[in-house]
Amino acid sequence: MVIHNQKVDYLYLPKGTILNDKYLVKDKLVPKSNLSIVYLAVNSITGEKVIVKEFFPQELVLRDLDGIKVVPKYSNQKSLKKEVSFFLQEAKIMKQIKSPGVACCYDYFKANNTGYIVLKYYQGANLKDYFKQQQLDLRKFLLQVFYPLLKTVASIHEQNYIHRDLKPTNIIYTDKPILIDFGSAVQYTTTENKRRVLTPGYSPLEFHSEESKQGPSSDVYSLAAILYYYFTFQPPLAVKERIIEDSLLPVSEFNPWVSQGLNDFIIRNLSLESKYRDQSIAEFRLNLRLEYLKIKSKKILKSFFSNLFS
């Protein structure tokens, strides 16, 4: 259902569209991705703001003449149904994973020849924008953002899933980091082929193959890439540009305040070969904490001797 007398643009759902008899579309929220469109909506029963993700792979589908229904470009209805089912797996995974750091999934359903996922609306900025707005020192960053994020990822791994798309834009910061977008998540304990999901700078080498072995150390790579971004304000060099000659620049090249130990920790966990990375979140967190404590100890000693001889 849609409110009439407004221009149809045949890409985004018209404002006022009602989905599943209760979700009133207010506006598009962010620029569309290759696979979906994200809307701000209101649950007309409770009055609560929600996020609605609509499966809309622009290369495969078009809007019908009514501006709402989705139709396949190449008359392959069976293939579209399969892709819609795959899209809705994200919601099923999010409902299975019990963690306060994972975005709450309220609902999911098929309609208009496509699929929709309804999520809780979080008032906050993604981590990329949050870093621009807030100048967090290392201590605040670790305590307020990164350690809670590691706890969330650890809980996901404990339930035999890996996220596979950890990056600053997939983390919303409210009073804590909230992990979103589980469209790439898989059970890493299965032997099934895994779809290629690539985000340059944040995806490890093993994501370039559907048959490669993937596991917690794959998410560790992405977490190290987030650390790299925090210190440099840019992602690491994409792995495909590192294969022949690994010219990944050290963190200290951009930020001279980063200790050699912390730099080595980040670079090691950005290794192309997963065996050189930390193999679990617990190991990763412990080694990160040790490097932080070394930095803290040096600062304390420096301050002590400075006061001693002043």
UniProtKB/TrEMBL annotation:
InterPro entries: Kinase-like_dom_sf, Prot_kinase_dom, Ser/Thr_kinase_AS
UniProt GO MF annotations: ATP binding; protein serine/threonine kinase activity
Domain Protein kinase: 24-293
Statement: the UniProt record of this protein carries the keyword Acyltransferase: no
KW Transferase (keyword) present: yes
CDD domains: STKc_PknB_like
Swiss-Prot/TrEMBL keywords: Kinase, Serine/threonine-protein kinase, Transferase
Matches recorded under PROSITE patterns: PROTEIN_KINASE_DOM, PROTEIN_KINASE_ST
PANTHER family assigned: OVARIAN-SPECIFIC SERINE/THREONINE-PROTEIN KINASE LOK-RELATED (PTHR44167), SERINE_THREONINE-PROTEIN KINASE CHK2 (PTHR44167:SF24)
Name this polypeptide is given: Serine/threonine protein kinase
Organism: Halanaerobacter jeridensis
Phylogenetic lineage: Bacteria, Bacillati, Bacillota, Clostridia, Halanaerobiales
